[in-house]
Amino acid sequence: MSIRAIDEMPLTGFHRKLTWACAGGPFLDGYLLSIVGVALVGMSGDLALTTAEQSMIGASALVGIFFGGLCMGPLTDRIGREAMYTADLAVLVVGSVVSVFADAAWQIILLRFVLGVAIGADYPIATSLLAEWAPTRHRGRLLGYLILAWYVGAAAAYVIGYAIAESVGSGAWRWMVASGAVLSALVLLIRVGTPESPLWLVNKGRTAQAQKAIEQAIGRTVPVPELLAAAAVEQSASTYRLRDLFKGVYLRRTLFCGLFYTCQITPMFALYTFGPAILVSFGLHDGNTGNLGSALISLVFALGCLPALRMVDRIGRRPVIIWSFALMAVPLVVLGGGAALPLGVVIACFCAYALFSGGPTVLEWSYPNELFPTSIRATAGGVATSLSRVGAAVGTFLLPISLTGLGVGTTMLIGAGITLVGWVVSVAWAEETKGRTLAESSGLPGDAHSAPADSRAVPR
């Protein structure tokens, strides 16, 4: 059972505004994680940072994202999406402002950890809220826009960082971290007034508040009996807790979400590192101009998401993720030829990987939100995010070692192997959620409410 007024609603201005507001979190994630890399150039000199301290500053946000996703997801399921939706943005504003006045490495490390916690918290908060308001036939595309915003945020960080470095000079790094506070405040203003998720409200038995939220947001009055029926379904699954993510069918789904997310993001970091070397041939050399090259890399990956955004709601999630992983492995295998490859082949492989990676990328937040019930939806999203960040951190740490000890060719072949693991996991465990309501896609096989609403839904 679901709330038909939401599931069957055409896209409205409310949905577009909510998507923009929810996308603000991933945008800030891409921005704040990238701007510190630009700022480290000036920060290292002003604060006399050692190599170890620079590494800790770069890693502290990833560690914070791990704990933010793991801890704040369950809290979001307990106290609500709307309450957490603005609180985590306030932390980003305050943390960025305080960073401007830091005068020691440990302060930057601590503040980056706090910012990472807020970013990690926003993933399950914003994605679950959007998933629970999105019409069924548009849900995959709307959730995919959020990851697209990450790449746009990363590109913006490099462009803005380049402009600040060119215009400010000495002490530019403080203006760079201050820019994060300004952008966070703007996103916070956009989010003010966002209504609570009706599904979360009925899950807690607050049907009157759910009815009011729907009327205010989309102008429809849902009959009380329909809300009570939805509440009965939701509350039948309200006993699920964090431990249930590691039992039975939900264990398989947890492993699937965490593994495919990790297999997608780990090789991507290798291409992010390999990419600037390619762009040197176009005159985008090291130094401040190299930031424009990094911005271009982010935009190439963003463009790769665009075809997948159209396909996930048209041909389905399962074929998109399976074929994407298979095709992603091909350019990595070719790059296994190493530095001897012609430049044109290297560039073509880079672009092909970026294009094919769009499938798993736009599904990073769709699957965790669609495969788990309301009572643990944000928890599942947080766990998937945390597991992926372990892979990202390990990949970031091991990549330079692999490039030095094994060479670029072998490193790319290892990336191809990781990608093929993602393909195997997807073939074995990817479920089709296209055309299904959240109640249908998140239910256990055999549950009455997990059956397809009509013949157009694809069987699992």
From TrEMBL:
Q: Report the family membership.
A: Belongs to the major facilitator superfamily. Sugar transporter (TC 2.A.1.1) family.
Mark the transmembrane ranges: 20-43, 55-76, 83-102, 108-130, 142-165, 250-272, 292-312, 324-356, 406-430
- What subcellular locations does the record give? Cell membrane
Residue segments, region Disordered? 439-460
Which CDD domains does the protein's record reference? MFS_SV2_like
| Name of the molecule in the record | Sugar porter family MFS transporter
Query: Which controlled-vocabulary keywords does the entry list?
Result: Membrane, Transmembrane, Transmembrane helix
What InterPro entries would the database entry show?
MFS_dom, MFS_sugar_transport-like, MFS_Sugar_Transporters, MFS_trans_sf, Sugar_transporter_CS
Question: What's the chief localization of this chain?
Answer: membrane
Short name of one Pfam family: Sugar_tr
Keyword Transmembrane listed? yes
SUPFAM superfamilies linked: MFS general substrate transporter
Could you tell me which PROSITE patterns the record lists for this protein?
A: MFS (PS50850), SUGAR_TRANSPORT_1 (PS00216), SUGAR_TRANSPORT_2 (PS00217)
Q: Which Gene3D superfamilies match?
A: MFS general substrate transporter like domains (1.20.1250.20)
How does this protein lie in the membrane?
Answer: Multi-pass membrane protein
Species this protein is from: Streptomyces beihaiensis
| Segments forming domain Major facilitator superfamily (MFS) profile | 18-434
